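Record type: monomer structure entry
Structure origin: computed from sequence
Chain ID: A
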Amino acid sequence: MKLAHFQVRNFKCFNDTDLVNLSDGINIVSGPNNAGKTALLQALELRFPPSAHRSINSPRISPLSPLPSEVEVGISLPRQEFRELSAHASLRFALPDFQRSPAAMNAVIDRSRPQSAETMRGVWDWILNQPEITFNLVRDSSGTFRAAMTPSHGLYVVDERPGQAVPHVFRQVTANGTVSFSAQHLAPAHDLGVELAPRIAARIYRFPSERFAKGTSAFGTSTTLQPNAANLAEVLHLLQTSNPDSYAEFITLVREVLPQVHWVSVVPIDNQQLRIDVWSTDKKHKRADLAIPLNESGTGIGQVLSILYVAYHNEESRAILIDEPQSFLHPGAARKLIEVLKRFPRHQYIIATHSAGVITAADAQEFLILGSEEGMTRVAVASTSDKQTMQAFLSMLGTRLSDVFGMDGVIWVEGPTEEKALPLLLKKFRNRSAGTSIVSIRNTGDLVGKDRDKFFDIYNNLSRKTSLLPSRTAFLFDSEDRDQAAKEDISRRAKGKAFFLGRRMFENYLLHTDAIHAVVNQIEGFSESGQVTRSEITEFLQAALRQPETWKPFPVAPNGDLASCQIHGARVLESLFGCLSNHRVKFEKTDHSVRLFEWILENDFAFLAELTDLMRQILQEAPPGVAELGP
């Protein structure tokens, strides 16, 4: 199942969100403090108490008779899950108006006998055979569900008239599993989605930021974790005793997130109660006496056990709502949790967070950005396919430390262009680059000034001693006009962690005629004639090779080409943009360089072989020294 869309009305900071769509996989909810992230997850859990919206825009209401809070939600079920949910349920639902029923239904039923058992069974079978069914429901703060439309699934039309009974199907399932169909006339219409709503809502889990799971529970036979995780000990005990191999696999997942947890055992404490114990030592030592009860352990352990149990154990999809995972987990553990959850894509995840590490790990399809004004929250949806929106959003998130805290490794680069572009290349090295962050050094002048020793000492000490930065650190610098002695000096001060581009600067790898042609022609109003031709670009680049400014302070190379390491690539691109656009468009490094790099990555990856080899060397932790590839 998945939550396809929602609309929150009159609940806490939400007056009316309008209809907001959700995607499969991971959805990120973010925004500043007190913007309503927790309130939104509470609403989507569909178990919220009354809490009317109050702001300058809300009407004055009596505390004795507040207006109801409600959430309209679309819940989609694939065919197999709908069948499983409804298999043992006795249900009432309205028959279609056969004068306006879908042609596909008419082909499999006998409309001349609209209320016969065969026809009613035919309608039911037709519904069962839909590839996916979406129920549009409203849940109010009294706990009542109703259909947002009639019928809530919208598969056919019901002949519903005020004051008149509507023909219904009564599908009855007896204790021995026998199914029968009979006709009833009821007013108003009963709805299939409303009948199934409690079962559907039970598949939505919300994990709050505060301590959630209980470390003890009664013995039992249920393998389904309750929405409040009150029976965590029960379900883990059953998994531990009935399928030890699966339980060991489950603990392996837990240890990926929390490596300090060596084992988790569930033991009886009397004839009725079970207790979860957390081992901080390897179980091969057989020191159960050293295990700590879950109730005395850190908050995050119970959260991780509960979240991963739902993701791992349930073969049918669930909606898993997680509130601020970085609040109960170390940043590195929060990121690992997201990486583990991505291995279970059958579930839908809605994660409220402002952590850059969590957001980066999630690689979400959709972002829900919350903003509050005068006590009223609005929801904006940003797609990750909209790169400009996403870049602006990530920039809004904040501090540089949050980009690297908890990461496995960090590569420090000279500027924001490389900071934006090189992560796109890192995705090509998925197995080695996971957990590696690219972060720019804000003042590269520190590298050559009188405080250069202090500069490297700060980075090295942070990485080695305080754990604020990852221990796997590398510096990637432009070659610029540095000679070999200068490079070796920097490498020595960086304790062998300095690497240099084989060419003068990053922009040298962007002098690709087809990439430039594609990018400049995407810029509105770049050329008076409408299109810049490839030949114009080629002629300009060839002419640039003969200009002293292209090489300065080096001499012009008589037989130089665009791959020459001493070319000043940024000057070439600045001049090209200015001349070919008649100075209407200025070359913007952090925008146009990234666009050029993206085009080359997608269309001529081999062109970047030199840069790719260097990044591979950095990720493989090359031997200390000045690592320089290229001409």
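Annotation 1: The chain is about 35% helix and 20% strand.
Annotation 2: The longest strand covers residues 2-11.
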